[in-house]
Amino acid sequence: MSFSSRVKEELSRQIPKGRHCQIAEIAAILGFAGKFEADGAGSVLRVYTESLPLARKYFVLMKEAFQASCAIAVRQNVYLHKSRIFVLALSDQEKIGKVLQAVKWRNEKNEDIRTRLLANRMLVQNSCCRRAFIRGAFLSAGSMSDPEKSYHFEFVCDSGEKAAQMQEIVNSFEMDAKIVMRKKNYVVYLKEGSQIVDMLNIMKAHVALMDLENVRILKEMRNSVNRQVNCETANIHKTVSAAVKQLEDIRYIQKAKGLGSLPDNLREAAQARLSYPQAPLKELGALLNPPVGKSGINHRLRKLSEIAAELREKGPA
86: closest CA among 133, 34, 158, 137? Predict the structure, then answer.
């Protein structure tokens, strides 16, 4: 089971206690996956989904909020033969009227007041209702990547108006959701790992949140170790390269005019480097008599490099 599927499975068992929150979540599900269709003499309110957690959640919410029992049918996807589509249908006309009025698709006069938005703004005025709405939206049209690979959290909307409202609701919790076009759809997404953690908390997917935090901690530890190893490797490479250059310069001086031509302090430093080619500067300075610090031995080796450079410029005698 993917990480996204585990989140949806957890959310399907999260039933709001307040009826207003239940209605907000139902409104999100209907906004993404619901259809009000004519069927013979009457009309039917249907939800189409390939997600079993969503089908289960919607069935329970309708029971809790409206004491309405939806008929469930399972169909085979004509495009993906291995995929199932769950169809939850409510045909009781009295119950349909109550549901449509509650989610602001109809008014008390049974007039159509539905807009191009996902939901009427009155349904998401309260913070708790916005949380429930986001939960229903994620169950219906949301997904997230495996945090082991990358951080990505999204809702797929079929219109710009719906995407803008979804972005507004998400950003009301101090998020920074963006919108991008993907084929014919509008995708509202988050990329920051910390914000995705906050979104799981907003939806009350606390088990998934802890799993994601564990992954983030391990990734940060690995990245920290990798950075440290890379830094140490770079320092070792720099030290080795410098030592090789110092040996080349000293040997050039030795060949060109001999180390005996050097002042005592430089000759001692040159002989120490020849005797201990792999020693770091601090250890090399300690070998001198009297010992010198890292900056002192570094100064002498730089002076030797300058002498070698001057000799190279003059060329062989």
Answer: 34
